[in-house]
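**Backbone geometry record:**
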Amino acid sequence: MKKLLPLLAAILLHAGCTSVPALKPVADPQRAWQERQQQLSRIQYWHLSGRMAVNNGSEAWQINLDWQQRGEDYQIQLNGPFGAGKVRLVGNAHGVLLHDSNDQTFYADHPGTLLYERTGVMMPVEGLRYWILGLASPQQQQQPELDAQGRLAYLEDANWQVKFRRYADVNSVQLPDKIFINKSTQDIDVRLVIDNWQLGAF
């Protein structure tokens, strides 16, 4: 199984990749980052679909991801080989429900914990809500690394190391479409490629 893990990740991350023209560096990346945070924080609705490779050192999953966010409310559908093959997380800041393909429903306070308990897949759902937009989470305390355009390049958040490998232009907004996430203390690796973005009101 371990011999297949690098191959599965390579196939997932290579498929659908398109070249993005290089952008000129901005004069003041820190100021550009402050302006980006204000712009991104105004996004009230977004919907994305993508693919994930999740590896915990002994097991690996390829997962299709569909995520809708409206303010604090979210709905995340994951299709993969775990269990019956499909789970749906529906929640907000107060809690989350997990629906599986056997029509069973489970509740917890935190989506990442619930997902791990029911599927064995560990991924930072709470942090991903922000990282997906190219933002640091409210709990993040360390200064992130910026690229030459004032976008997030790397950050450490709740013991996760997050690398923003590529951005795409979505309605004139630069959003990540390839993110590598690692938690070295638990040998967890998550690689996300976003295929489609839809943005709502600003």
In short: The longest strand covers residues 188-199. The chain is about 20% helix and 45% strand. The chain has a mean pLDDT of 86.
